[in-house]
Amino acid sequence: MPRYVGKGSRRRPLRRYGFFIAVAGLIALLLLQTSPRLSEQIEPVRTAASDQMFHMSKPSLIDRVTGASKRERRIFELETRVRELAQYEALALSMAERLEVYEDILNMQGEPAGAEVTARIMAEADGPFAEALLANAGRLNGVEEGYYAENDGGLVGRVVQVGKRSARILKITDFNSRVPVMGESSGLRAIMFGGRDGAGQLTDQPESGAFIDGERILTSGEGGMFPRGVVIGRVIGGGDEPRVELAMSRGQLSYVRLKPSARILPPEVDDTSPSAEAVTAAPSEAIE
Fold it and tell me: Are 177 and 268 a contacting pair, CB within 8 Å?
């Protein structure tokens, strides 16, 4: 006899399928939360959707009066900036690891390392120099004459006098300061000294040509007082009278790093010979 099939028996398979579909959806959601590859692919879509929903929402009258909408928008902008910086950080770390691998493959020799000291600037030092700083690190901390000072922006100056617990730093903004520099893009050499307006002036240019407006100015390493490649600033104006906008002004002057300027001896000079001692002592003699 034919069996009667009612409406209730037809709905049961649909309910069973719905239950299995819900369980599969929960498992997929868990996989999305735990799998880093899937989360990296879905994170941009999720971020774009949340940003779009935030822009579509309109602040209420109470939020406008209390200023909550401005704070929320500022928080949203900061969170967006943090996400962008996190991506750049991951890219920088991967590039640093890749660079280390390339250096190992090429057997590249790095810069000679030296003991550096982080010192605090206590006051503006009085003395024969108009632009000088007094740091709270001296001979007991390993600081010697000829060390150069650098902040998070760029070159600050060089140590011209050392005590037991303090050191006097001649800033590159002083008129008596002379720094051999070079253009990063043009490659031109010159001597920079401090100007009255706080910017650097370039003189004694041995090569013909003009510095490029906006190019970075680095230390050339000539003379041995400063190592090669330390950032000083950028060229302003160019032309016949180029000026240098100093990078140290964009950093903090409360703390500086005092670093030794490693002198690379020529291959004909032995480290134990008297001529090597004379070459090594040349920077300190120039400072005195």
Answer: no
Count helices and strands (H / E) in the chain.
6, 12
- Give the separation between CA 278 and CA 274, rounded to whole angstroms: 6
The string of pLDDT tens digits covering residues 73-93 is: 888 889 989 999 998 998 899
Cα 200–Cα 179–Cα 235 angle in degrees, nearest 5? 35
Phi-psi region of 279 (alpha: psi -120 to 50; beta: other; left: phi over 0): alpha
CA atoms within 13 A on the CB side of 94: 6
Do 33 and 46 contact (CB within 8 A), yes or no?
Answer: no
Q: Give the right CATH number for 111-264+274-288 from 3.40.395.10, 3.40.930.10, 3.40.30.10, 2.40.10.340.
A: 2.40.10.340
- Structure token digits, residue 260: 């030794």
Place of tokens 């660079």: 99
Tokens read off for 188: 């031109």
Q: How many residues in total does the chain contain?
A: 288
- For 142-178, write each residue's pLDDT tens digit: 899 989 999 988 999 999 999 999 999 998 888 888 8
In sequence order, the 6+-apart residues with CB closer than 8 A to the CB of 201 are 192, 193, 194, 195, 241, 243, 244
Q: Read off the tokens for 56.
A: 């579509």
* Residues whose CB is less than 8 angstroms from the CB of residue 33 and which lie 6 or more positions away in sequence, other chains included: 39
Q: How far is CA 139 from the centre of its chain?
A: 29
Who's near 83: CB < 8 A, 6+ residues apart?
Answer: 47
Helices 7-34, 36-56: axis angle to 10 degrees equals: 100
Maximum Cα–Cα distance for the chain, whole Å?
119
The conformational region for residue 97 under phi > 0 = left, psi -120 to 50 = alpha, else beta, is alpha
Give φ, ψ of 140 to 5 degrees: -65, -25
